[in-house]
Amino acid sequence: MTEPDAVTVADTVRWLHEEGLSRLAGLSDQVPGVIAAYTIDVAAGTVTAYPAAGSAGSAGVLAYAADDLPFPDGSTRRLVVVGVTTTNSVLVVDLATTLALTINSDRPESPARSWVLQLLLNPEITITTNSAEVALEAGNRCRHTFIPGGGGTIVSVDDTRPPVTTITLNSSADGPDHLDVEIDRSGEMYLGTRCWTLDEVMTVDDNVWAALAAQLEESIA
User: Fold this and answer.
1) Nearest C-alpha neighbor of 91 from the set 125, 114, 60, 124
2) CB atoms within 10 A of CB 70
3) Closest by Cα among 97, 83, 31, 30 to 61
4) Is the distance from CB of 167 to CB of 103 less than 8 angstroms?
5) What is the β-pairing status of strands 35-41 and 79-85?
6) Are strands 178-181 and 100-104 parallel, antiparallel or unpaired?
7) Alpha helices of 93-205 — where are they, by DSSP H?
8) For each of the chain's 221 residues, which pLDDT tens digit applies?
């Protein structure tokens, strides 16, 4: 990826976290069916919405100009930026549209941390995990605890709009919804029969995570 492309992608991701995710959440309230994912074309600004399997219009896709999205209503729901596709679009997934999703990787904690940080930008969300490597000192909003029946490393996401989304790291029972991440941070995102090939998956490595955790502990102390 060239340096100009990297800057443009960074600008797109910044826009998403500042207002874009909220505008996508507003769009989901206006269209028929359930939208499972979005891509934002970095060069053109075109937003493509992908209906969830079994919902209205699930066989097709919907396209919008970013400027035509609804005014942000404040909530980003359970939307997370997953990464950058091979067609230079930013992929956003709505975790509220899946009950169970798996992250498969040599270090699945790294992409899971990225999702946790993004989700905590929404004050409606609480996260529960049995992994000390994914939890943060964020009061009751991100709790590290024992989860009965948890057969592996689990991250549960709740925004008071049931049902809860359960993310499992390296699950042996890989379902139709999963993110596969390679060592070079490329990967593939599967939602049912849809698949997006990613040049780069958003991750948070150990050094950055440790520094962030230390800052949070200092602010709480």
Assistant:
1) 114
2) 15
3) 31
4) yes
5) unpaired
6) parallel
7) 109-119
8) 334 455 499 999 999 999 999 999 999 999 888 999 999 999 999 999 999 987 766 668 999 999 999 999 879 999 999 999 999 999 999 999 999 999 999 999 999 999 999 999 999 999 999 999 999 876 789 999 988 766 689 999 999 999 999 999 998 887 999 999 999 999 999 999 999 999 999 999 999 998 887 777 665 44
